[in-house]
Structures are given as structure tokens and as C-alpha cells.
Amino acid sequence: MTLLSSAIYRKALNTHFFDANPKNVKLLTNKSVIMSLPQTLRELVFPAPHKRERRKEARPGELLDAALALFVEKGYAATKVEEVAQRAGVSKGTLFLYFASKEELFKAVVRQNISGNFSEFNAALDEFEGSTADLLRIFVHAWWDRIAASQGAGIIKLMVSEGAQFPELADFYRVEVVEPGTQLIRRVLDRGTQRSEFRLLDPNYGFYAVLAPIMFVELWKNAPHLSGADGLSMNVSKYLDMQIDILLNGLSLQAPANFSS
């Protein structure tokens, strides 16, 4: 950690930002202090990184974005690392500085676009204080917004079509995505059962009721040659709300209202 230099400290005093007592000068690692400095002083303390440095820091993300786009467009087998590097604007050798192989690149893409969301989902589940019915609605829509509606959803389609050709990657995907995703759904359903909001379900099959509509809409929206205009125009939010209502009417202890006249 670095303290303000004497010259910069004097400039800071002239802004009347810091106390004149040097003991009160805070470390530059204190983000609130840094961001409170006047713009010109912040630039003096933290000069903008050189263009080449910024480019180097951005490269992993650029490579992952390029790889995701190509994996979704061409499939895993047909995508070459040279193409990924070219699309990211770097050399093949630069790509291998960050990712040892195409397999490792693919795994990083999966973590960034799909499984990287799970820790946040679990934390939100731990902190949620509302009803489990509301939690289920939020969870399903969050899955759609954060994963299924993104370009990363194409990875799911890719694994369905090519997973059998690459058993190591299929095993990785099962451990990294399928199992923790399944566990998340089970946690939501278990919460409802423990709070006497949902009736007791077979834990080996109950989660499929939640998973099925999510998987359907992911595949349907990514297969326009099958779904056609109806699939492209589907209002996903309305579809998911309808599926959740069906689920909750089947899960709730309280009998659904009778709407017949």
C-alpha cells in the first residue's frame, strides 16, 4: 500500500479535502477517499494506464467473448483457436498465454456465462425472507434474464448436440452446470416444504417440474428452424409466469380458487 507523496499531499491540502495533520491522511486503498478526490488530483495520484496496459488487461475478456460467439455460431468441434484469436484481435500465441488449450478456453466460457452466476444465486436464496412462491418466481425469471436470454444459452444447445462427441467436456458441464443448477432448484423446493408452503415432493423428481419449462424455452428460442415465427415472437415472461402458476397450483397446500361461474 502506498501513501500520498509529499507533493501530492500538499496539493490535497490546497483542496481543503484532507485534515492538515499527516496522521489523518488515509491509505490510497480506501476507495471512498480515492473517489472523493478532485478529478485532476485523482489523475495525478492514479494516472490512466497506458493503452497497451489497458489492452493487456482486457484480453482475457475479449478472448472469452470471441470464443463464446464462435462456439455458438460454429459449434465446438468446428471452432479453431486461430479463429478465436483473430476475432479478438490477438495472435494465437497470445491466446495460449491465457488459456492452455481450446478445452480450457471452453471451460472458462462456461464459467463466465453460466456457472459463474450460481454463487450469487445461492447467496440470494440464503438472504431471501419472502414466501417460497415469490422466491420461485424470482429464481425462474433470474435464470432466464441472466443465463437463458444471453448468448451463453447457445452453450446449452451446443452441449446437447455435441456433448457425446466430447465426453470430458460433457463431464465438466455436468459437474459445473447441471449438478449445481439442480441443487439450486432443490433448495428452493425444500425451503417451501420445510416452511409448510409446498407439499412433500419426491426429491429425485420434483426438481424436473421446475427445470422442464426453463430447458424448453432455452432450446425453443435457440432453434428457430424448429420453432419458426411462433418461437421467435414468444413472450418468454408470460410463458414462464404461466408455467409457474401451474406449478404453484400443483404444489401449494391450499387448494386453488374455483373460478367457475
Give a description of the structure.
The structure is a single chain. The protein has 261 residues and is mainly alpha-helical. It has helices at 6-14, 31-36, 39-45, 51-74, 81-88, 92-98, 102-113, 118-127, 132-148, 153-162, 167-194, 206-221, 224-233, 236-251. α4 crosses α7, α4 crosses α10 and α8 (118-127) packs parallel to α11 (167-194).
- Number of helices, where a helix is a run of at least 4 consecutive DSSP H or I residues: 14
Write down how many β-strands occur, each being a DSSP E stretch of 2 or more residues.
0
Beta content comes to: under 5%
Rg from alpha-carbon coordinates: 25 Å
What distance lies between the first and last C-alpha atoms, to the nearest angstrom? 73 Å
Task: Determine the mean pLDDT.
Answer: 78
Secondary-structure element string? HHHHHHHHHHHHHH
- Main beta sheet: none
The portion of residues assigned to helices is 55-70%
Low-pLDDT ranges: 1-54
Structural class: mainly alpha
Shape: elongated
Task: Summarize this entry quickly.
The chain is mostly helical. Helices cover 69% and strands 0% of the residues.
Features:
elongated, mainly alpha, single chain, 261 residues
